[in-house]
Amino acid sequence: MAAAIERRSTVASVREKSGKTGQLVFVEVEHITRADNVEVVRELQTIVYREATTYMAPLPAIGAPDLSNWEWSRTVTPDTTMLFRFSAITFNSHRIHYDLPYALNQEYYPGLVVHGPLMAALLLDLAARRFGPNALSRFSYKSLSPAFAGQPLHLVGRGAAQIELCAIGADGRMVVSATATLRGNDHKSAPPVS
To answer: Which domain of life is it from (predicted)?
Structure first.
């Protein structure tokens, strides 16, 4: 099936804030995708730019997070190949995802950073494994903290019509929170879990 696909991106807003790591700039970009002039996807993306840092935090300690409050789970350990491939298919050229010396010595991360959208895709996959493909009508996620290659990422979920999903880092930190709505339950979903 051939269709003319068009994606338009517009900067919706730019906000400055101070955070634990210094100055931050939040840029909201709205993406609208159309197939044969019919809107099929509307996405609001928030990109966070942080002030340069001069110190490196250690990798999070690996522990056994408490997953007892979640109904289903899956553990994935993102590796360098997964990060490189995701960078390639999403045209993300930021070196923190595939160039370890750069991530360590220039950006002062303790390892390669797992993409927020990759973790969101893994959460979508978790929901698809539970409810079947194309079962969701809405999905919203928020990246809360970085996760790093080579460390386990615990993907967890609960709920039926309104679904809560989270990616939990190796040390038990919630790194991504998300909500999803099953088709047929399209009333406005709650904001992501914090």
So the answer is: Bacteria
- The angle that helices 80-89 and 116-131 make with each other, rounded to 10 degrees, is 100
Backbone CA torsion sign across 153, 158, 162, 164: negative
Q: How far apart are CA 73 and CA 71, in angstroms?
A: 7
**Nearest one of 144, 77, 82, 150 to 110, comparing CA atoms:** 150
- Four-way CATH pick for 56-194: 3.10.129.10, 2.60.40.2890, 3.40.50.10070, 3.40.50.150: 3.10.129.10
Q: Walk along the chain (194 residues) and give the pLDDT tens digit of each residue.
A: 688 899 999 999 999 998 777 788 999 999 999 999 999 888 888 888 888 777 767 666 666 678 889 999 999 999 999 999 999 999 989 999 999 999 999 988 999 999 999 999 999 999 999 999 889 989 999 998 899 999 999 999 999 889 999 999 988 889 999 999 998 865 444 444 44
- Encoding tokens for residue 92? 């993300």
Domain(s) of CATH 3.10.129.10: residues in the chain: 56-194
Residue 154's nearest CA partner among 60, 57, 38, 58 is 60
φ and ψ at residue 122, rounded to 5 degrees = -65, -35
Q: CA–CA separation, 160 vs 166, rounded Å?
A: 15
Q: How far is CA 9 from the centre of its chain?
A: 19
